Description:
The structure holds 2 protein chains of 2 kinds. Chain A has helices at about 25-35, 55-70, 85-100, 120-135, 155-160, 175-185, 200-205, 220-235, 235-255, 260-270, 290-300, and strands spanning about 10, 45, 75-80, 105, 135-140, 165-170, 195, 210-215. By secondary structure, chain A is α/β, with parallel strands linked by helices. In chain A, helix 2 (about 55-70) links the parallel strand 2 and strand 3 (about 75-80). Chain B has 11 helices and 8 strands. Chain B has helices at about 25-35, 55-70, 85-100, 120-130, 150-160, 175-185, 200-205, 220-230, 235-255, 260-270, 290-300; strands spanning about 10, 40-45, 75-80, 100-105, 135-140, 165-170, 190-195, 210-215. An 8-stranded parallel sheet of chain B has the order 1-8-7-6-5-4-3-2. The relative contact order of chain B is 0.13. Chains A and B meet through helix 3 and helix 4 of A and helix 3 and helix 4 of B.
Amino acid sequence: MTKIDFKGLFPATVLPMTQDAQIDEPALRHYMTHIAQTTIHGVAINVDTGEAPHLSHEERVRVLEIVVDEIGDRLPVIAGLPAQFTEQAVAYGRDYKTAGASALLVFPISAYQGSPMDPEVVVRYHAAVGDGVGLPLVLFNLLPSLGGVLLPAEIIERLCGLAPVVAIKDASFDARIFVDLMAAVRQQARPIAVLTGDDPFIHESFVLGADGALLGFGAVPTRQLAEMVDLAVSGRFAESKVVMDRLAPLERAMFAPPVRDYRARAKEALVMQGIIPRATVREPLLPISPADRQGMRDAMVAAGELAQNVAVG
Amino acid sequence: MKLDLGGLIPATVLPMTDDGRIDEAGLRKYVRHVAAAEPKALAINVDTGEGPHLWPKERLRVLEVVLEEVGDRISIIAGLGAQFTDQAVTMARDLKTVGVHGLLVFPISAYQGTPLDPEVPVRYHAAIGDASGLPLILFQLQPALGGVNFEPETLSRLCMVAQVAAIKEASFNPQLFVEVRDAVKSARSDCVLLTGNDNFIYESFLLGAEGALIGFGAVATKQQVDLIAYALAGRHEEARRIMDRLTPLVNAIFAPPVRNYRARCKAALVMQGIVDRETVRLPLLPISAAERESIRKTLIFAGELDENVRVAEAS
């Protein structure tokens, strides 16, 4: 695998499911082929958008194999690494490497919780995964209310010193934290890519210096969002802003409270576009309401993602 | 057997070998020791027992060992830490097969983000209850430790899930504890209110707790059994006296960073000669000499350790 070019969009993709909430392999292949036709720089598989916390490890491996088989010759495939403890993370990471992952997005673990955070716990966890698996790592700075932990600058600097670390996804949802994180990463001797995962300020992230974007929002208006990111990366902010302004209401509709429904909403939008056959999510997630569906439809039309006169089934 | 949860339910530690594996001989000896204090039940494979850091097969093995050793004398509650409904159902069936007497149902990540549709936790618990037929203990855990505080309406609906027998309340907030008590008791008066608040164990009983499911119970078990028996009998002076003796120890064990409490509990048990080593599994790390010294002093204050015992260096 060639070096990953992080200066672009990495959509976190949804997982199409059958009516009984199993992996819908033909639909997954079709969906991947569809989004691979845009200017994205890779995909992020088995993260929250793809319902990875609700898949068994064996299912995550299978999803990865299908995606790598379908588009792995064209695009890097970043795999989410959700684990509970060090030995498990290494074992899972090795399986994802065997399945063809290009890099791992390392999810925070419950042992980080409680303050003060011990830098040793976080650093040793990533070091063990890096040493034990042998894939490039993407760090993950995630808002506590979404189950993550915000990593203090001191820990980020130490993590950036680990050889396998190539990028960091920031999902602090806080511009001040994002700016501080940029500063900490830019002080590093070697380049580490900063990927925005900050849905509330996607466009502004690039004005603040982001290299790329790893976003669940990318699962739906993939072409337009990739175009927005490409424009922003080349500093054409006036043009990127126009695209982002068109997409912003859709982003707000998709991530409206309760945010857990964003996976069902993303699938509903893709069903409206005819890209996937059904919006089924797996329990404990539940289907969305007709009002929620209508909100997505209106936002899709406003974003230019759906013709006004398409009837919703 | 009818599950009696009205008293102390210690969440136990898991003794480990030098390389972080299950120390079966050490586990047998330790649970015999804890059971001898006659708590109401044991909570196995919860955070205190490093449940989140064990493989599913290891969790089942721990339960087999504990059930073999003390399952004829004491009820065994298993922590059920899953990620999604199907997985929880499969695990619950396995736990039923192994022979546990009840389940403590951990919150899942899908609860995060507000508002929480009550349907999400209600359906999750109902699926587990239907599949296993086992009594369930609800678990309200403070967000800083990865849980959620449920709305009163959600609590009421959860109490109506047929298999629910009790709630462990661990908001660490006395006001929320009282709100939970009221919501739970008005929905189902027979739902047992268990405190999980290590920061106000004795006071929980003044506020209506009927039992305690706490990690602190892993050490000084006998004194806490007595403390709760006194508190439930309204003999508050005697209960208060025990709590005063134990407070420095509970504060030392749960001092920040709280993640070290498992290693600290093991350190205390090593000093008492009850377990062989302090080893915790990665990502957890060993504690410092200063933390160990603080445990030693507070154990002595609690009457749990002889002043003249030399504490061996951690292996």
